[in-house]
C-alpha cells in the first residue's frame, strides 16, 4: 500500500512547479527525503518533468561533466531561485548579471573581485578571469604528476576539457540572454498596455 501511495505522490509532484517542489520539500523530513534524492532517477525525473512542464526557462538540461554533475534541484536553484551571493550571502540585485556560469556561482561584484584573478594572456586578446580555487586545485594536480610526459599529457587533456566546457558555458549564457530578452519584451508590452489605459 505504501508503494502505491509513493507512486501517486511521485506522479502528483510532476505537475507541481519547481518552486512549489522546494516549498513541499520543507514541509516534513519525509517529503524532503523523497524530493532530495540527487542520485535517484525517479526523483530527478520528478524535477525534470516539473521544470519542463511548468517553465520555459531553463530549457537546457542541467550541466554535467564539469567538476561535478548537477542534479535538477541544484540547477533549478542556481537558475531560478537563488537570490543571494553564494559567498557573502548578501542579496543579489541583478539575477542574470551576477550569475557566473564559468565558476558555477551567483555572486556579487565584491566577492567576484576577491575570488577571481583577471589576466590578459596575450596582447590584444580580451581579459580572462580565473577562479582562485580552480587555479590552486589545478596546480596541485599538476604538481602531483610524476614526470614531464605525464604533465604534458595532463596539459593537453585539460585544454580539451576547457574547450568543451567553454562551448557548454556559451550555450547556458545564450539561454540566459534569450530569457533576459523575453523578460524585457514582456515588461515593455506591459508598460505600453498600462500607458494606454
TrEMBL record:
Domain F-box: 1-50
Superkingdom field: Eukaryota
InterPro entries: F-box-like_dom_sf, F-box_dom
Pfam families the UniProt entry points to: F-box-like
PROSITE patterns in UniProt: FBOX (PS50181)
Protein name: 17168_t:CDS:1
